[in-house]
Design brief:
Layout lengths: L11 E4 L4 E3 L11 E8 L2 H15 L3 E3 L8 E6 L4 H20 L4 E6 H6 L1 H6 L5 E3 L7 H9 L4 E3 L22 E5 L1 E2 L10 H5 L3 E2 L2 H13 L4 E5 L7 E3 L6 E3 H9 L6 E5 L8 H9 L6 E3 L7 H6 L6 H14 L4 E8 L6 H14 L3 E6 L7 H5 L6 H24 L5 E9 L6 E5 L5 E5 L9 E9 L4 E6 L5
Parallel strand pairs: 3-4, 3-5, 5-6, 6-7, 7-8, 9-12, 12-15, 16-17, 17-18, 21-23
Antiparallel strand pairs: 1-2, 2-3, 10-11, 13-14, 19-20, 19-22, 20-21, 22-23
The structure holds S-adenosyl-L-homocysteine, iron/sulfur cluster and FE3-S4 cluster.
Amino acid sequence: MYNDNPTLESIKVIDEKRQGEAYAQNNLNTDGKKRFYIESYGCQMNFSDSEIVASILSEVNYAPTVEMEEAHLILINTCSIREKAEDTVRKRLRIFDKIKKKRPEVMVGVLGCMAERLKEKLMHEEKLVDMVIGPDAYRDIPKLIATAEDGDKAINVFLSREETYADISPLRLQSNGVSAFISIMRGCDNMCSFCVVPFTRGRERSRNAFSIVAEATDLYNRGFREVTLLGQNVDSYKWLNPETDVKVNFANLMEMVALVHPDLRIRFSTSHPKDITEEVLHTMKKYENICNYIHLPVQSGNSRVLKLMNRTYDREWYMDKVKMIYNIIPECAISSDVITGFCSETEEEHKDTLTMLEYVKYSMSYMFFYSERPGTLAAKKYPDDIPLEIKKRRLQEVIDTQMEISRIHNENDIGKTFKVLVEGFSKKSQDDLRGRNSQNKMLVFPKKEGLLPGQYAYVKVTDATRATLRGVLVDSMES
Ligand code: SAH
Ligand code: SF4
Ligand code: F3S
């Protein structure tokens, strides 16, 4: 569930591999306000959290800037999922250090998962860090800024069982004015043995359903046409309405959001294979505005490895879920996350992952080699015994397999017509527009007078590459 699609000109891409980006909101009235600069790394939840942080800061007279040189406050919202993610953050801190040397009054705050994982240690290891703020402590930022300004240690890494920031209206930073994220829950109660998230994000809790619907309605009224409901495991969303005692599950919530307006598209991420239900699939089928796309990370195609990973499903069970999805929604696209070279994975077991990709025919996958994370179950129980070059070679095989599947997946779309939500100009040419179809595939097509971002268009696919579909505008689905 990574944000791999920074699109606006106003976004500075720091690392081409979807590692992070600087936020911009150029049209804010910044008169008399202090400026903050924020970079976000990791999953969409982190990007969404940065918008909550921006909202909290805007209440205390701070406005965002893309120029770190003019910022009074530099924030970095960090990810701990793999060692490389943490290395990237440390490299960025070196850059911030240069600014601090020139302007010692600038304050640097580390937010997010790395702040939570390392706590005070981060302040000892990284001398320039003035503030360390965990994912559940963002309301405390104004107080922590004051503490740091007084020269004291500003740290809050308290993990809450209740905090969902339900009442905070995010300040949309990385906005194309068309698509927005809505966090519907926080934390994770699964204990996948490789994963640091339960330690950095705490216990799972679901946000008040009415506050989610209100946020979606507000976005629709402001011209947005697509919302992505976010959580580490959205299918385990559950909220009890305290007034009526009625339980709201994920299928119910999706329906509530789908009813905001038929022109508001609904996406969601991430689905854990063990929790996605038939009810969710039938709700997707019932509403045209719920997109036919499921991110259903498999991690490995081998049952023994899945058991070691503590994923709670095996190969056959996952395949049955996939069958159920294609039975109920034949046109559904499924994508995945894959880890290669997990502890003790054999060559045969790795091949099971390759055949799983072939079986499901994922439209795309995020693929990684295993990176041991301190404190996780796997780090405690299983030696990280697959040599790096083997992990990387297996990863390359997974990537090659997926690239071929993606190419075929896209070629199969040639001749089909899709309803596309226009997002803006194509990255390559101002003569072309781009937008996504329900299956989350990007389509590029010649622009037309009067067709604007946020509007729907019908596009017939004429050409396909591994990454993009090209097409022409047509009048309707039938043409
Ligand atoms: N909640 C989501 C995943 C969040 S983390 C889910 O359950 O699917 C995003 C992805 O990072 C994971 O799906 C996994 O593929 C990868 N990942 C997590 N921990 C990792 C590790 N220690 N090494 C390599 N990849 C990892
Ligand atoms: Fe990590 Fe597993 Fe939770 Fe996903 S479901 S965040 S992989 S522990
Ligand atoms: Fe997300 Fe990375 Fe944290 S994936 S939850 S930002 S460890």
